[in-house]
Amino acid sequence: MKAQKVAIIDMGSNSVRFVIYDINNYACYEEILNLKVVARLSSHINDHGAMTPEGIEVVLNTLNKFEVVARKYNITSIRGVATAAIRNATNSKDIMSAIHKHSSFSVEILSEEEEAYYGFLAVTNSTHLPKGITIDIGGGSTEVTYFENRKAIHLHSFPFGALTLKKQFIETDSPSESEWAVLRSYLQQQFSTLPWLKDKKAPVIGIGGSARNLGLIHQNIVNYPLSGLHQYEMTSEDVFSIQGKLSSLSLKEREKVDGLSKDRADIILPAIAAIEELILYTGSTSFIVSNKGLRDGLFYEKLLETIDVSHFPNVTHESFYQLAVTYQLDSTYQKRLSVLSSYLATELINNKLITLSETDLTHLHWASHVFYIGNTIHPESKSQHTFYLLTNQSINGLTHMERLAIAFMASFRSRSQLKLYARPFRHWVTKEELKKYELMGALLKLCYGLNISKRDVVKRIQIDFHTETMIGLSIYYDGDPYFEEFHASKYKKHLERCLKRTISIQFIQN
């Protein structure tokens, strides 16, 4: 693939963003710039439904700011899109004419269905979820979709957003009981027009700034120890609880709430109310935050059109490919580690020495592909850097708990080091789970030693016998296994400790 820089202008009703993505020759991508202007275009719509001259001036000034920045980058292509504020304005043609006349950027107005579709595309290309309900609360519209098997079944756009709900139903900083009642009645009536949403009981996935703020607030409340907001999961009770806390605060008090952006403090309540009513209508028990939204959907479409598909075949696989290229991992070597660890795990399972589920084996596979990824930063601290890297960035396709499990395995150095890493997560991980991660990490470390010279000399692993106190392990090889034999004898102690057996290793010419 030819290297390129792709820019997206997302002209929303509340904020306008300018994002630049860098795509390299290996189709790996990175967001290198993300700028926001809180334009609040919906607030510039007059009583006749037209955008005021002041509002149009805000649009042009914002685009001008982005133009100045764009000149500093060698951008291959720019796609600008406008959503509800401009789409619904009675003078939308005049606005587009002004943009065409005064800006070098080309901007198109997305239809309601297109806006909903790109949100769906972002979620299904960046999460593990085969089924779900997305809600994208903008300033002037709210898009809802229902998908199964990563395919959009229904898409709909509602004519309300956080800004317009605030303007229409809440006169003061904090809503009164009667205002709450009218607002909720309106939302219930709107959602009831979509019978395909009723009692779906699928997870609700929140897109947009209000959903992100909701997740950030909750993370601060619970002192969440893991970095990353994308795919952060909350219960429906968590959502209701936060709404209760925020609604009891004044605007000035809300502005000081950790996790809540100051520019959203006045509109967060109606936004969460919309999420609450959707959760109640669909019977969902889970709310998941998506850090990917409309502009990401636009980008994924651009990226994937070169191979004529709309979705990554496997989101998790794509994420680990991106990690491998970003950190310059030896993919052949990592694949061999995966094969060796699979050999050893299968032998241990078949001999009833350990019990691992299919999910565990999948996690072992992914952990093998990033085992000691921190070595690329500094070999002396490869374990520490590995754990830090994997717990401090979102990995699309993995839940937060899966990411933590893989971090425990891929960074494994010793039992004491594992316990040190696990200390901040003691309320998450049971002793039994930690023992399992130690076992799988020890297994990976032994297999790491069995290809320490990166020459693939070990061809097969076989358990010949086992007793209550000993396991006989035969390692079949081609070539000189001197270094592998040395490191296997050095690293086997970790697995011996987990299995409570001595491991006798015999190297046999294949």
From TrEMBL:
<feature type="domain" description="Ppx/GppA phosphatase N-terminal">
    <location>
        <begin position="20"/>
        <end position="304"/>
    </location>
</feature>
<dbReference type="InterPro" id="IPR003695">
    <property type="entry name" value="Ppx_GppA_N"/>
</dbReference>
<comment type="similarity">
    <text>Belongs to the GppA/Ppx family.</text>
</comment>
<dbReference type="InterPro" id="IPR050273">
    <property type="entry name" value="GppA/Ppx_hydrolase"/>
</dbReference>
<dbReference type="Pfam" id="PF02541">
    <property type="entry name" value="Ppx-GppA"/>
</dbReference>
<dbReference type="GO" id="GO:0006357">
    <property type="term" value="P:regulation of transcription by RNA polymerase II"/>
</dbReference>
<protein>
    <submittedName>
        <fullName>Ppx/GppA family phosphatase</fullName>
    </submittedName>
</protein>
<dbReference type="InterPro" id="IPR043129">
    <property type="entry name" value="ATPase_NBD"/>
</dbReference>
<dbReference type="Pfam" id="PF21447">
    <property type="entry name" value="Ppx-GppA_III"/>
</dbReference>
<dbReference type="InterPro" id="IPR048950">
    <property type="entry name" value="Ppx_GppA_C"/>
</dbReference>
<feature type="domain" description="Ppx/GppA phosphatase C-terminal">
    <location>
        <begin position="318"/>
        <end position="459"/>
    </location>
</feature>
